[in-house]
Amino acid sequence: MATKSAAKGAGTTGGIRIRVRAYESKILDASVKQIMDVASKHDAQIRGPVPLPNEIKKYTVNRSTFIDKDSREQFEIRVHKRLIDIMNPNPKLIESLGTMNLPSGVEVDMKMM
Question: So what's the pLDDT on residue 12?
């Protein structure tokens, strides 16, 4: 059993895992496409984009401040997420990913695997 997990871990070393998050899915998809274009320009192996489950936060608020507790409004915030793995990146690719200009409202987390 230990050899299987060791073989799994050995195949994923030397890569970058990029998690991209945004409130709007269209902006998120455009940003992911931009990241993948930069990675393909530098001849990197790409896995993804893998859509991750949406994070939904719901808030319930009273409509009035003092009376009428039965009257409420409900709001929700949806956070869309994507995951991209880049295998065996070169230093130029890492530098270009770090200096990339993405639209506001897009959060990017890069981790070395």
Answer: 45
